[in-house]
Amino acid sequence: MSSSQSDSVASSSEIRTISIAHSPDSDDAFMFYGLATNKIRVPGYRFSHTLTDIEALNRRAQSEAFYDISAISFHAYPYVQENYTLMGCGGSVGEGYGPMIVASRQLTTEDLRKIKIAVPGTLTTAFLALKVFNPELETEVVPFDQIIPAIQAGKYDAGLIIHEGQLTYATSGLYKVLDLGVWWRETTGLVLPLGGNAIRRSLGADVHKICSQALRDSIQHGLDHREQALEYAMQFARDLDTTLASRFVSMYVNERTLDYGADGREAIRKLLELGYERGVITVKPQVDFVD
To answer: Which residue numbers in the chain have pLDDT < 70?
Structure first.
């Protein structure tokens, strides 16, 4: 083996692979566009990407801390906090909007007490917010992308919708009963934190810092090259045209995604503390961040 070949083998062995998992949604795709397409590179590091439904990511982070960096619902964080800490960037926050309860007919919030509500998973933040709103509501888990069809088919009177459904429910002939983001702001004066990125504690402070900067650079790259990032994200924009996809991405990838801000971090703590106080969360939250 020549010295140049030896050097090549040595250098390749020094490359560290960081496994990243996030949901196959247009906002996450937009956020990770820079890293996924190698527009953002980090010397000595390679980032592998796995796309999986958020509830599956919540469960996997809880059961085995499998990925180095994983998108999670904030509701799931207390159950993974022993192995993961929250990154200070990469979150999705509702600025006076968020998951919605929609129905096949016009209902009041009082009517919700009499029916069963389809929900996208019991570890989603949408479910947590719903149960903080009213712990007594009856729910049943349905995959998030099947909730609107299930309501249309008459299987449920109402459902809790996340992702793009927040923009398309009316065209599906459904009625909004409650926007939990609006309710949360009216109740607390805060934004509604929905999902974030968690990083394995065992990676250590140096790797935390490098990965945080890489993700922040990827988010900034998407914001700076919006047209290209949106074109990439469109492959994950379920049933949305470009205009609606752009609107959806703007809702959840913005300055708050680069940094939650002090009030954003307060909102995360507040939501989890309320969930714990009301018995929705069974593990006392210990929220910390790496930047």
So the answer is: 1-13
